[in-house]
Fold GRF-type domain-containing protein.
Amino acid sequence: MRLICSGMASHAPIPPMRCPSGHGYCVIRISQIERNSGRHYYRCKHGGCEFFMWCDHLTHFVEWESSSNCCCEKEAKITTLECRVAELEEELKQCQSLLKKARMIAKVLPEAFSFLKIYVAKDESDGGT
């Protein structure tokens, strides 16, 4: 799943959010329930954590902050970098999953090759017919 770091339906981008419990960056999801359909929300990626927050709550704060001229070029760069870190954390998670699968395959390969050697040896002893 790819993180959404681009704009919501309005105009402000969805800034990345760290879990208050220290589990890294939250994932951004879109509500499917009728009452809040299409609304973005933050959810901690750690299964045991119950952190939840609507993205527009934070986005309204960011819009207010920028309208009061508190944002500067450095803050925009920090937001961009935080978004990139969140994307890289998600990519790392996917790579770790692939590595785990590759290790599982590598673990069973010797047994599979052993079976193939027995099967080929059996064919050769039967005279190849």
In short: The longest strand covers residues 27-30.
